[in-house]
From TrEMBL:
SUPFAM superfamilies: Alanine racemase C-terminal domain-like, PLP-binding barrel. It comes from uncultured Sphingopyxis sp. It comes from the Bacteria. This is Alanine racemase. Pathway: Amino-acid biosynthesis; D-alanine biosynthesis; D-alanine from L-alanine: step 1/1. It catalyses: L-alanine = D-alanine. Keywords: Isomerase, Pyridoxal phosphate. Its cofactor is pyridoxal 5'-phosphate. GO terms for biological process: D-alanine biosynthetic process. Catalyzes the interconversion of L-alanine and D-alanine. May also act on other amino acids. Residues 239-365 form the Alanine racemase C-terminal domain. One of its GO terms (cellular component) is cytosol. PROSITE patterns: ALANINE_RACEMASE (PS00395).
Length: 376
């Protein structure tokens, strides 16, 4: 049998490209520090493998969304790497968080109170990041919450503030006026905490002017090969390759229909290939009759609906000998970058990556050895 085992699809994750993308961002934002966002299992690509590759590339600061993600990842990380929980400090989890050497983002005065209280109980100063909502309208403290904290000597003696942060809502649209407005509000708020490192930019923010980089950048999607903004060509190296196996090819007569709901009717006699991946593998139903796969340099349109475990593509453009059962077609790769597939699916690279699921044969291209195809 062809390489790729017994799954309907194979996913190749290039850790060397992730390391190269990290170095590109770190170089761009220096002297600001580049931290890496590895929430949601490193955007679906494997938090442990990705974090190790980033550590080897020089990253010392990591962000996840939930305390549970941090507790799962912490044992895989050397003690000197800092791990920050973006979604804040869950009630009752203070001791767990402190014992695991995980750093919470304090998103409300109530969380700040609980963390200071935990520090007094543990008898040591506990590190935390403080988030200010500069205009995202999602997480963080209001301006009027910050001044009392900045003046609270008890709080400041109990909590070691490692960063004051905020999050940009429109960083992927460089000319959006909200970016400058958020920067101005953030700088005013951060001025209440002199000497504490400031963090504002995500991937998009790393490609905004230097003022947005502040002291620390939190890069996510760009590390994984997604375009950091909507302007021009994507400067990042592609990280993910996704191929699906052809499991059968059938000839459908003119007027014949394909798939659930008969949403595609063949105008002429057509050769229809069924490939072994579907919406259970993170290929959304919105790709039905819209997206495509690639083989031998040919774009092969998806026809009919996306099923749970399979997708039908029209391969009539390829002569019968050029594609057959067992062959692989490209879904993400040189012909079809992740952002192109996401566009066809009416979504974004973030959602595509985090939806990929567990059924693929996964292989990691090792950053250190460049051992292409090595499976971890
Ligand atoms: C997810 C997230 C990031 C990373 O964003 P990208 O656009 O993927 O670079 C940074 N900061 C916060 C607060 C986030 O939630």
């Amino acid at each position: 049998m062809d390489e790729g085992g017994i799954s309907g699809g194979r996913l190749r994750i290039d850790l060397g490209a992730i390391a190269a993308n990290y170095r590109l961002i770190a170089g761009r934002v220096a002297p600001a520090e580049a931290g890496a966002v590895v929430k949601a299992n490193a955007y679906g690509l494997g938090a442990v493998e990705v974090t190790r590759a980033l550590r080897d590339a020089g990253c010392r600061l990591f962000f996840v969304a939930h305390l549970g993600e941090a507790l799962a990842l912490r044992p895989a990380l050397p003690a000197d790497l800092r791990l920050i929980v973006l979604n804040g400090l869950p009630p009752g989890a203070e001791a767990l968080c402190a014992e695991a050497h995980v750093i919470p983002v304090l998103n409300s005065p109530e969380q700040a109170r609980r963390w200071a209280e935990a520090a007094r109980k543990t008898g040591r100063r506990l590190p935390a990041a403080l988030q200010f909502d500069s205009g995202m309208g999602r997480l963080g403290m209001a301006a009027e919450d910050l001044a009392p904290l900045a003046a609270d000597a008890l709080f400041l003696s109990a909590v070691d503030l490692v960063m004051v942060m905020s999050h940009l809502a429109c960083a992927d649209t460089p000319e959006h006026p909200a970016n400058r407005a958020q920067l101005a509000r953030f700088e005013a708020a951060a001025a209440l905490f002199p000497g504490i490192p400031r963090a504002l930019a995500n991937s998009g923010g790393a490609f905004l002017p230097a003022g947005f980089h502040a002291d620390i950048v939190r890069a996510g999607i760009a590390l994984y090969g997604g375009a950091p903004n909507r302007d021009g060509p994507n400067p990042m190296q592609p990280v993910v390759g996704l191929e699906a196996r052809v499991i059968q090819i059938r000839t459908i007569a003119a007027g014949g229909a394909v798939g659930y709901g008969h949403s595609h009717v063949c105008e002429r006699e057509s050769r229809i290939a069924t490939i072994g991946v579907g919406y259970a593998d993170g290929l959304p139903r919105s790709l039905g009759n819209r997206g495509a796969a690639w083989h031998a340099g040919e774009r092969l349109p998806i026809v009919g609906r996306v099923s749970m475990d399979s997708i039908t593509i029209d391969v009539t453009a390829l002569a019968p000998g050029r594609i057959g059962a067992g062959d692989w077609v490209e879904l993400i790769g040189p012909h079809q970058p992740i952002d192109a597939l996401a566009d066809d699916a009416d979504t974004i690279s973030y959602e595509m990556l985090t939806s990929l699921g567990a059924r693929y044969d996964r292989s990691y291209v090792d950053a250190a050895t460049c051992n292409r195809g090595d499976t971890i």
